[in-house]
Amino acid sequence: MKKIIISPDSFKGTMSSIEVSGIIEQGIKNIFPEIQVIKIPIADGGEGTVDAFLTAIGGEKIRVKVKGPLFQEIEAFYGILPDKQTVVIERAAASGLTLVEDKKNPLLTTTYGTGQLILDALDKGCTNIIVGLGGSATNDGGVGMAAALGAKFLDEGNKEIYLNGGGLEKLERIDISGIDKRIKNCTIVAACDVDNSLFGTSGAAYIFAPQKGADERMVKILDENLKNFAGIVGRDLGVDVQNIPGAGAAGGLGAGLVAFTGAKIQPGIKIVLDIVKYDEIISNADLIITGEGKIDGQSLRGKVPVGIAEKASKYDIPVIAIVGAVGDEAQKVYERGITSIFTTNLQPIPFEEAKIYCKENLLKTTESVMRLIKGIHK
After folding, report:
1. Domains of the chain, start order
2. In sequence order, what are the residues at sequence separation of 6 or more whose Cβ sits closer than 8 angstroms to the Cβ of residue 329?
3. Confidence of residue 154 (pLDDT cuts 50, 70, 90)
4. How far apart are CA 283 and CA 280, in angstroms?
């Protein structure tokens, strides 16, 4: 064995994909000191996406003053990749759940700051824009984002509505005549790992708003507001946002990006692997190690380990998934190219206790895997 690729997702709530990659590398080197190791940490649209790209292929992190999810002044960031034309934006950096702390309320939060990040990237001459949709605090359909780019959202008195989930109730008309003309010359892709519709029982409000602070009453209001929004988008812009898979991602920002910027919604893992030229990197690898916090049936829906395995299968490269926990229907990932699963959960203890030892256990698990491989290849 000469070359191992490390490509994990983050272990949610414990370690970033960059941290996971470093620990796995250490575990490999402790057993195989001379082996070539290439780290390609993966983030599929949520927090850590910018850093994962910059770590994998280089580039520059740009810091910008924007409006946070509650319209407060914050410092956010995005990444410009080495080609100077491609920019990676985490909506979580400007409109994320961690920025509202104990003030969660999707009736009040906005994506305006995400639009400001896009605007800053346009000012720097970028023409390829990737927007990661994970980590959302909002449920505004992307009207805040679009307003930052020049769109207007008006009530029956021709006054601008509040640019948040609650404001959509008053929406009567959309005017995109003032939207930044540079958008037309851009390729914009929304990185998303869900396929939820905009409204309805599988939509943005019912599925995601409770974790953003919505109670049962608020969920119903938010859902009705998104339904109103969708109807007016259809009438004024001629775009049927309800039937676009992923339109409900990030509180409807998926729908807003499609409607107001012409964006395409794609699985985050596909975008990342294409940008870093993953096929070239792995073509002569002997083994790939991937992983995530929990592997289960949901992993089949565009999650990192399965995306990695499907790439690897073209080259008959074995793929080991090192994970924090194994859930229901995890066995189905074997049908998609995963060779074997190893869990870092070395004792039957609750997550809150297990996360204290997560780094230590990840290292131990990696070393155990490497010892097995070393024994087989004697």
Report:
1. 3-40+297-376 (3.40.50.10350), 49-269 (3.90.1510.10)
2. 296, 297, 300
3. very high
4. 5
Task: Reply yes or no on whether the pLDDT at 378 is more than 90.
Answer: no
Amino acid symbol at 230: A
Between residues 368 and 351, the one the model is more confident about: 368
- Buried b vs exposed e over 129-151: b needs ≥16 C-beta within 10 Å? bbbbbbbbbbbbbbbbbbbbbbb
Cβ(113)–Cβ(86) under 8 Å?
no
Query: Percentage of the chain with pLDDT > 90?
Result: 80
Q: Which amino acid is at 163?
A: L
Write phi, then psi, for 323 (nearest 5 degrees). -130, 160
Q: What is the pLDDT of residue 355?
A: 80
**From CA 288, how far away is CA 338, in angstroms rounded?**
10
Question: In this structure, are residues 277 and 284 in contact, taking their beta carbons and an 8 Å threshold?
Answer: no
Measure the CA–CA gap between 265 and 28, rounded to whole angstroms: 36
